[in-house]
Queue: 4 jobs
Job 1
Amino acid sequence: MEKNINLLNINKELVLASASPRRQKLLKLFGVDFKISPAEIDEDNFSSTLPNEIVMELSSKKALAVAEKFDDAIIIGSDTIVWLDGKLLSKPADEADAFRILSELSGRTHKVFTGITVLDSKSAKILNDFTETEVTFREISDEEKLAYIATGSPMDKAGAYGIQDDFGAVFVKKITGCYYNIVGLPVSQLYDLLKEIIS
């Protein structure tokens, strides 16, 4: 039986400011106990036009919103966007929008940005960074798009696709950068930020 490894030695509550089951699954890799407290913010409200700044701004807002509920905890905020042709491809509004987004991504390379914010609610110390990954799609047929959309899976995902435990994985031809960033939580970067904030 495999044993969990926990080198972080966090001596206070760890809180993930996200309801995403994908992020929760990745955080469990660290072998630490944590709570879930989804952030209630408007993800369409941000001030920057640069993708790296957008995700860092939104991840910070999430962490700060959740930090108000905890006197002495480490809060993890995260936000992921898909970027193509200088514009943000967010979660699809409906099935027609999902079809449009997948059509734009088909046969092309896009970028995935994830912002990570780690905040100590007692000291107010805050660390904020981002990860960028390039993803190249193969050509996707209309039949494949429609079949995928019919599963409902694209509807809650930025860029209308998932790469893990999901048919969307077959669209991905090449990845340059962190795979876990595409899932929504760049684990190596997060681990380094957590080590820094507890040091």
Note: Residues 133 and 177 are 5 Å apart (CA to CA).
Job 2
Amino acid sequence: MSDSDTILSALADGVLSLTLNRPDKLNSFNEEMHLALRAGFERAHKDADVRAVLLTGAGRGFSAGQDLGDRDPRKGTPDLGHTIETFYNPLLRLIRSLEKPVVCAVNGVAAGAGANIAFACDITLAARSARFIQAFAKIGLVPDSGGTWNLPRLVGEARAKALALTAEPLDAETAANWGLIWRAIDDDKLMDEAKALAIRLAAGPTKGLGLTKRAIQAAATNSLDEQLDLERDLQREAGHSADYAEGVTAFLEKRKPEFKGQ
């Protein structure tokens, strides 16, 4: 794990909590924070004690996206493609390929890459005061961090184009109604609900939950026949798991199951 204080990391009840921690910069990403957050998700991949991840931000915002001071064109033309390939794309791939639930609690503004990272998580909750902004249009850039892939799939081409081209803020209630996030929560209840959800998922049959995540993500590009075959294969794998055996045994014995994520 990185020892950077730009990401606060804590493991409890099977949940690895990762908190973006540059509140004075609205948790905008610099290279140090990128590497620290990547280290957190790499730990989640490797550490069997991590059963779920909870991602949130410190202070009054979730993330304003890239720290533009680190990519100032007045100091020379930056290679933003290199930035994406080196930092954002590896992070998105780690989030999407992690076969454990990732809960995101958006506690304030989520702009640019900050918004699209939130949309890439498995279950995203947002404070009612939160706003999602595809801020790229304000500075002549293209949505990244999976934005051009996720947005049209979640809300359709018309809304995706309008969000990306106008950079108008989208409130949390509308984001929930449109299917961009799971739920809008009263500000003072957000973290309690997000933590409770993450703990509940971590205590669940995370082997099967991870396979479910893989199947749903594959559906975006699979044909029906390919998806049916994938369901067959993943169900076979799930059926051989200790979690399945425990779940059925507990049901038949009328007791609470004790899943191990195996």
Note: The chain has two domains: 7-202, 206-252.
Job 3
Amino acid sequence: MELKNKVVVITGASDGIGRSIALRLAKDSTKLVLIARNQEKLSAVKEEAMKLWAVSVHIYPCDIRDTKLLESTVESIVSDLGGVDVLINNAGIWQKAMQLDEIESSTIEDVLDINLTALIHSTRLFLPMLRTRDEAAIINVSSKAWVVPQGWFSVYSATKYGVRWFTEVLKEDLKDTNIRVAWLYQSGTNTNMFAKVDEDFPVEKFTNPADLADVVAYMLWLPPKIWLHDVRVAF
């Protein structure tokens, strides 16, 4: 895909992997659409991306757990840009290690809503726009947690397994269309996702999010007859 002037939507774009993907794709002269909860952080990413040759950067503060708010955000994006070429479902949160019966119900709902339910809704809402393009792509950023059972992470792992099968069925549903579907599942990444729940991991040993962003750019850059639909990254 020729990325110049393509409209790329990234959820969870204010920091971590999403921020790195935005900055990497800015170098390809894309039109970035960045969604996250924190407007101040989004503004900072926008400023950085514009310095890296992004054609334009539109930011949309949105808590994607709120489906009505997500719907209105998508309507604004349609009004502002007219269409979308690439959707990168990246937003996600971590579940602190503990037994299931120790996890608060609000935590369970948050992890399910952000990691899986909102991903499904964002895909549903952007699909009509993606269908209108000559070529389009959806990349779902997941985790190796669906592959390797990790004790004490039952809810987080369940969401990532759900992302896997949602993506697999979506690929089947869209196989004869203009939309290419893939998912990227990686080992631990050096972001502050773990620190947000007071989890202490040796993140300095984990994958650099900028390197992961290079993988995403490479996946999108490939010509039409080549598509990496199932990509695992390990450190």
Note: DSSP finds six helices and seven strands in the chain.
Job 4
Amino acid sequence: MISQLSDIYIVPMTREHIDEIVALEAEAYGSHHWSRDSFLNEISNELAHYWCALDEDGSLTGYAGCWQILEEAHITTIAVSPKFRRHKIGEALLKTILDDCYKNMIKYITLEVRISNVPAISLYEKYGFKSLGSRKGYYQDNNEDALIMWTENIFYDKFKLLYEQNIKSLTEKVEIKCQG
């Protein structure tokens, strides 16, 4: 187990990150994961917004992305290397997505998450996502159901207050350095 990271560097995903991302994708999700071409397509998609989390040495520790369409965003992926989990990287990536949504006037955010992924569900609930149903057999590798989660309007005072409280707590534990 590595010691707690003090700095998390968030950068826009580029072609140069793809090989590391594909390796992390396989490590995080096993044999059923996105292909190299899938990620290359995503970074060239005008609707897609993707980021990488790097450690102090510039090594990939996680990545995340979403599609932004009109006033809605759909989080397509958040993945953290198993050896870097529980170090606030997933939360830093979620913060980056939320910050970008605020910047681009996106009001609502949705996602699907495996019903067995309790740590991810807890993180999303911490940030105000609520379950609004499920998709039966959504994950093809094991036919697991997906929980569908949504935010209310992120510009509502209630959501913004929760966001600000969470970010204050997060930034007391790690420094997030965003580029781009």
Note: The chain is about 35% helix and 35% strand.
